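QA checklist item 7 of 12: single-chain prediction sanity check.
[x] sequence parsed
[x] length recorded as 422
[x] structure emitted
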Amino acid sequence: MKIDLRGKNILLGVTGSISAYKACEVARLFIKSGASVQVVMTPSAERFVSSLTFEALTRNQVLTENSESWATKLNHIDIGKSADLFVIAPTTANTINKLSKGIADNILLQTALAFNKPLLIAPSANTNMIENHYTVGSLKMLTVNEVTIISPQSKLLACGDEGNGGLAEPLEIFYQTAKQLLISDFWRDRKVVVTGGGTREKIDDVRYLSNFSSGKMANSLATALYLKGADVCLITTANHPNIPNEIYTIDVEDAEEMMEYTIDSIRVAKKGKMSRATMNSSQPIHLIQKRPYLFMAAAVSDFTPKYPQIGKIKKSDIGDKWSIELKQNPDILQEINKDGITTIAFKAEMDIDKGFDNAKELIERKSVDGVCYNLLKDSQSFGTDDNSIVFITHENSINLCKSDKLTLSFKILDESQKINNE
């Protein structure tokens, strides 16, 4: 996914963890996005990865104990002045505990103590070290002081133990850092429901009716919303391997399940947080301040088998011809209560003459606030990494042109933001 961080300056700290080599991939992701990256390393980190490696990746000199200079800006005071944020990945237990107490006994800790902008840390340590009550207390103290903690993952660690303490994946570190740079006041903490993928209508336990929708557009929308600071709930039938871990996802199969969870998620979005704990809680939910949004990008099957079978129907029992009786699925956009929520529909058409009019007609017929119209050539148009959208509202239509789906998602959010029903 292409995220534009051109003009952003990132300070990347590396400490002495076995996972220090993964910081190279973190740096590469930032560079690929167009950001400028400056690296500061502890002496212990240099035992795992050389400063020359990061200099080759970033094209900037690395700040170390030996390279610090007061004749230039390569020192622990000046290096952070031009940076938009400071992310330390990996962050050892030693560094976590020292950071929380303001200790500055190496070049990285001195840089952190002098830094007065957003600070993120990605812990990486043995399970016993990360779960030691001193480290747990330090992480709580850092959170209170508005340091963002990029949660470690549970896995088989390099030391041979299995448990919590593995460095978050480089892509997740990149996402959480990019969010700090791209967050907007309009989308921050706004509850948004996104539906995606093509529903699968069961014929028997091994066969189903579906369509060619890949769910990529919905995944990109959810990612763009997350990066803008929205509280996103993604309801999808499709795979979502490369979206931020913090996006709350609900995996569904058929139209009935899609409708059930969409209605429930909208209800929760109107009342409060959309976290898993809130969805399952009987406690009172705090009222929200911002009007929620629904992006209905799912391709919901129009029909479903009237009598789905249990088990597998044998070919010998079917014969030469097979007639399956179908019934119409409920129209989710038609059925849901859209009061108090801004709704953006998606309409794919193959009729070059009537496709636009069919899409625009959705605004009145289904009472939506906007439509993303996509003119397809054929079935090969599904599952691509790019798309072409015309954004239609009551007042006008805007051609967002063809681009990769994440870039297009940001354009859709910009237009959706203009629909102010608050």
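[x] summary fact logged: The two ends are 31 Å apart (CA to CA).
[ ] second reviewer sign-off
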